[in-house]
Write a structure and sequence with these properties.
- The complex is a heterotrimer.
- Chain A is mainly α.
- Helices cover 68% and strands 0% of the residues of chain A.
- The longest helix of chain B has 25 residues.
- Chain C has one domain: Four Helix Bundle (Hemerythrin (Met), subunit A), CATH 1.20.120.80.
- The chains are: A mainly alpha, B mainly alpha, C mainly alpha.
- The interface between B and C is large, with 47 and 48 residues.
């Protein structure tokens, strides 16, 4: 009887609430993770739709399907939704919540109720962002950066969008706070910091950035709000304010924010690579420390977004130099992943394909980032679609593929169902081809001078825009294949009982699929590192001799 | 479990005296900072005021906020937070201090 | 079965150190929140040195100093309230907490009169008197209202928090064994004090 009670899955147990309240009032980290997953996928769908419409508009010069004002609102909303509602919570809040406690052998996060509050703040912020679209005045058209002075002059609904971003920031802070305390205080006996899975390390570094950098954007957006509401002189140049100072403050958060997005994705890839090559991770400590180094250096490079605003030359040189430095820890990770694959017995299942897709696309995104970090080149490509291509390679090709990799990797554990592997692979290749067709032409036309955020363009760019738009269709087909595959699996009656389908060595593969309420019947005691494959040394020495 | 229990209490013997002493020093420092504000030290006027403010915050952090009795982790945390602010100020002024 | 039961009890087992860690991390976000405003202040002060000096003359150093003393003293009574509860002196702890709230209230009353005096002189955001002044002075007063205003908001929140703690202490929820809530309110209150320690010289003492 006792055993039966323990093995009730987190999807089925009965708490004190019932119906939908059993979910939206649940403090179980796994249920909260799923709540985040559903909400963020919903917004992902909206963001993709907006992106699709923008691409469709750009298929030919001049007005195609919408006017310029609508286009401005669309790219603003696409940015706000994708960044604040999908990519930032995508890995830490969804998979971090679901798997961090399990990975370190804990029953839940340190502050479960705070965790729920964080989700509610997310929903509140998201609702406000949605409301801002429908209020009279029209959706904000400032771009997701809310640059001064336009953001205090625009008559569109900038205020709700600002407040939404402020609230979403606090949701993110609370998640980070929870994770730091969880990692410090809730690790299973024997699990030292250096025996933690590297996904936990990446979440730890991310959490620090969330806690320290997010309040800066919070206060900055609040200052803009106050300035709009009461006419207080803070940034408005008409009152002596300095719009460039606003940009500084904005990027002090928003540059580290891209590391909030990319670090957990790197963590996921680090989990997947050793499992699918059946080898111990190469350079555990280097990967762990490079996460911290990325968090540190990532906080020191913000002004490379501002090379053309007239900063001092000293500042430009310093920020350019620091930008090159931040590439080092990222490169360390890539080298370690490749070294782990070396001589491994690789199984090319869908999670690994997505992880490899990540490495490939992230490398392109990273290298083009270095190109932009060089001062002279930056002058040439600033505010062109080259930049758009770069950050989509990093944020979508990187973090997006990281999220998809995590979905394919942990899907059987989360839902106790298995998707069709063949379809998953077809989905990956469609997505991969579509992605490159969509974004690679942007590098080319950006280099040739196509500005970003423009609704119209010269006829000479049409061929690139045309290819790119075709790419967006292929990409969407890929997404549809992937998600229908998941939905099919979820609806299938056969449940999947193999608790360790990929022969992973981390703790989540020791608990039942659809883990029970407190994850572990008995908290495990850890004696070995997370990726210790027994025949690792044999593999390495065998062929050399 | 045993170790955890020890960590419930921050210090073993709570006393009133030390806090009153710290409070007196804080009042004195406030007096000093107001007094020297009238004197024009030129460029170092701001520096003096900030130095006194830093000393006062240090006292509040160490004694009133019990940082002295906390584990090394907490001290490291405070260091990280301050480092972040310091880096931000320094890099921001790499723009504003130069033309 | 007994093994499992033991583990569950361990889970319920409270972790004060973890709670304190959470509170400190939260305080960092508050610190950086104000830190962002101090960055703005620093840049404008650097850009408009003279005008900041002139503008600061409008502020009442006496009220500023008085408020500094009030806040420092309230920090003392707050920490003494914790010492008292740890010595199991419930009455004294409540007494100190009430004094703290009282002092915080005094701070807000002073702040009210200070702001009202400014507004009476026509110095408030968007006013003609203010807009007639130089850009540096407009920014100074913009920052003055926003920073002391947000700080005041934190004082109000602190008052409510300590009020709740007083109630907890009366009910015995906060006691000599379990006083983490009171300690949390205390940590918050001291941070509000630290922020004022910097606001005071930067606004009132630069004449």
């Amino acid at each position: 009887m006792h055993d039966k009670e323990q093995s009730v899955s987190y999807l089925d147990y009965k708490g004190k609430h019932s119906g939908i309240f059993a979910w939206i009032l649940s403090t179980d980290h796994k249920r909260i993770g799923l709540l985040y997953l559903m909400a963020s996928l919903l917004f992902f769908a909206v963001g993709v739709t907006f992106g699709f419409l923008m691409r469709l508009e750009l298929i030919a010069p001049g007005r195609t399907i919408m006017d310029a004002q609508t286009y401005n609102s669309l790219f603003t909303l696409h940015g706000i939704i994708m960044i604040f509602l999908f990519v930032i919570p995508g890995l830490p809040a969804v998979f971090g919540n679901f798997f961090l406690p399990i990975l370190i052998g804990a029953k839940d996060v340190a502050f479960p109720r705070l965790n729920l509050l964080s989700w509610w703040l997310y929903v509140l912020g998201a609702l406000l962002a949605v409301i801002s679209v429908f209020l009279p005045g029209g959706p904000a058209d400032t771009g997701w950066t809310f640059y001064i002075p336009y953001s205090i002059r625009s008559t569109t609904n900038v205020m709700p969008a600002l407040i939404a971003a402020f609230i979403l920031g606090f949701s993110s802070i609370l998640t980070g706070l929870n994770f730091i305390v969880t990692i410090h205080r809730m690790r299973a006996p024997g699990m030292t910091f250096f025996k933690m899975p590297l996904f936990a390390w990446s979440l730890y570094a991310t959490a620090w950035v969330q806690i320290l950098a997010t309040p800066i954007i919070g206060i900055t957006l609040l200052l803009v709000t106050i300035e709009r509401m009461f006419g207080v002189g803070l940034f408005d140049p008409a009152l002596g304010g300095d719009p460039v100072l606003y940009q500084h403050l904005f990027w002090i958060y928003s540059h580290p924010a891209v590391y909030i997005m990319i670090l957990p994705a790197m963590g996921v890839v680090t989990e997947i690579i050793p499992v699918f090559s059946h080898r111990t991770i190469f350079g555990y400590k280097f990967i762990a420390f490079s996460s911290c180094a990325i968090a540190l250096f990532g906080s020191m490079v913000w002004a490379h977004h501002m090379f053309t605003v007239g900063m001092s030359e000293t500042a430009q040189v310093i920020f350019s130099l620091l930008t090159f430095l931040v590439a080092i820890p990222s490169a360390i990770k890539v080298f370690n992943w490749v070294a782990t694959l070396y001589k491994g017995s690789i199984s090319t299942d869908a999670p690994l394909l997505y992880a490899l897709g990540f490495i490939f696309l992230f490398s392109i995104g990273g290298f083009t980032g270095l190109i932009q970090g060089a001062l002279s080149v930056n002058m040439h490509i600033h505010d062109t679609s080259f930049i758009v291509a770069h950050f989509h390679y990093v944020m979508f090709g990187g973090t997006g593929f990281g999220i998809f990799a995590a979905m394919h990797y942990w899907f059987p554990k989360m839902f106790g169902k298995m998707y069709n592997m063949k379809t998953a692979k077809v989905g990956f290749w469609t997505l991969f081809v579509g992605f490159n067709t969509l974004y690679f032409p942007m590098f080319v036309m950006g280099w040739l001078g196509m500005p970003r955020r423009y609704f119209d363009y010269l006829p000479e760019f049409q061929i690139y825009h045309f290819i790119s738009t075709i790419g967006s269709w292929i990409l969407i087909v890929g997404l549809i294949i992937m998600f229908t595959n998941f939905i099919k699996a979820l609806r299938s009656k056969t449940s999947y009982t193999n608790i360790n389908p990929w022969s992973g060595e981390t703790l989540e593969w020791t608990v039942p699929n659809k883990p029970p309420l407190e994850n572990f019947e008995v908290i495990p005691t850890i004696t070995a590192g997370p990726y210790e494959y027994k025949d690792n040394d044999e593999i390495l020495t065998k062929e050399d001799n | 479990m045993n170790e955890d229990h020890l960590q419930h209490t921050i210090e073993h013997k709570p006393t009133y005296g030390i806090y009153i002493l710290v409070w007196l020093v804080l009042l004195m420092l406030t007096g000093v900072t107001v007094a020297v504000a009238g004197i024009n030290f030129g460029n170092i006027t701001v520096a003096t005021a900030l130095t006194i403010a830093i000393v006062k915050s240090y006292l509040v952090l160490t004694f009133f906020m019990h940082l002295k009795a906390e584990t090394a982790t907490f001290k490291l945390f405070v260091g990280v937070a301050l480092l972040f602010l310091l880096i931000s100020i320094a890099l921001l002024f790499s723009d504003y201090s130069f033309l | 079965m007994s093994v499992v039961a033991e583990h569950i009890s361990e889970h319920v087992h409270r972790d004060d150190l973890g709670s304190r860690m959470g509170i400190w991390l939260f305080l960092f976000t508050e610190l950086v929140l104000f830190g962002g405003m101090f960055l703005v202040y620093a840049v404008y002060r650097f850009t408009y040195q003279q005008e900041f000096h002139v503008a600061a003359k409008e502020l009442n150093t006496l009220i500023g100093t008085l408020n500094t003393l009030i806040l420092l003293t309230s920090s003392l009574t707050m920490v003494l309230a914790i010492v008292a509860i740890r010595k199991d002196n419930k009455f004294l702890s409540i007494f100190f907490q009430v004094i703290t709230i009282f002092l915080a209230f005094g701070f807000m009353v002073n702040k009210y009169f200070e702001w009202m005096a400014k507004i009476h002189h026509g110095i408030y955001p968007g006013s003609e008197t203010l807009l007639a002044k130089g850009n540096g002075e407009i920014l100074f007063f913009g920052l003055y209202y926003v920073m002391t205003g947000l700080h005041g908001l934190h004082v109000l929140i602190g008052m409510v928090l300590i009020g709740v703690m007083t109630r907890f202490t009366m009910k015995g929820t906060v006691n000599s064994d379990k006083y983490i809530h009171l300690e949390a309110a205390g940590l918050y209150w001291h941070l509000v004090d630290i922020i004022w320690i910097f606001l005071f010289p930067l606004f009132y003492l630069i004449t």
